[in-house]
């Protein structure tokens, strides 16, 4: 399955991430953001007071989307909001 900007919200929803915790396609205060930049790169960052923190650029849209989903997956696991399956 390919994770792109038009599907990343669905993956975050499956992880139980509230829609007010992220912004797809734009910069919103106090949210994790995923943006497409004019130079063709994709960026994931925390937005606060108009500034970008922990910004990571990507050459490919899918890589940026997977990074955002991964950030939230780790957060949900460490907060006890997801449970790892035991084999």
What does this structure look like?
By secondary structure, this protein is of the alpha+beta class. It has one domain. 29% of the residues lie in helices and 28% in strands. The chain contains 2 helices and 4 strands, in the order αββββα. It has helices at 8-14, 61-78; strands at residues 22-24, 31-36, 42-48, 51-58. A 4-stranded mixed β-sheet has the order 1-2-3-4. The longest helix has 18 residues, at 61-78. The chain is globular and about 45 Å long.
Low-confidence stretches: none
**Number of separate strands:** 4
Count of DSSP H/I helices: 2
Overall structural domain count: 1
User: What is the terminal-to-terminal distance?
Assistant: 23 Å
**How much is the average pLDDT?**
94
- Structural Rg: 13 Å
Largest beta-sheet details: 4 strands, mixed
- The strand order across the widest sheet is 1-2-3-4
Give the SSE order as H and E letters.
Answer: HEEEEH
Shape: globular
Which percent band covers the strand fraction? 25-35%
Q: Considering DSSP H and I runs of 4 or more, what fraction of the residues is helical?
A: 25-40%
The structure class reads alpha+beta
Helix-strand blueprint:
Elements: H1 8-14, E1 22-24, E2 31-36, E3 42-48, E4 51-58, H2 61-78
Parallel strand pairs: 1-2
Antiparallel strand pairs: 2-3, 3-4
Could you give a quick summary of the protein structure above?
The protein is 29% helix and 28% strand. The protein has 87 residues and is α+β, with helices and mostly antiparallel strands.
């Amino acid at each position: 399955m390919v994770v792109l900007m038009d599907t990343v919200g669905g993956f975050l929803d499956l992880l139980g991430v509230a829609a007010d915790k992220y912004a797809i396609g734009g910069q919103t205060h106090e949210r994790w953001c995923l943006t497409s930049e004019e130079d063709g790169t994709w960026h994931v960052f925390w937005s606060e007071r108009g500034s970008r923190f922990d910004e990571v650029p990507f050459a490919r849209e899918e890589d940026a989307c997977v990074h955002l989903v991964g950030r939230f997956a780790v957060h949900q696991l460490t907060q006890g909001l997801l449970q790892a399956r035991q084999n």
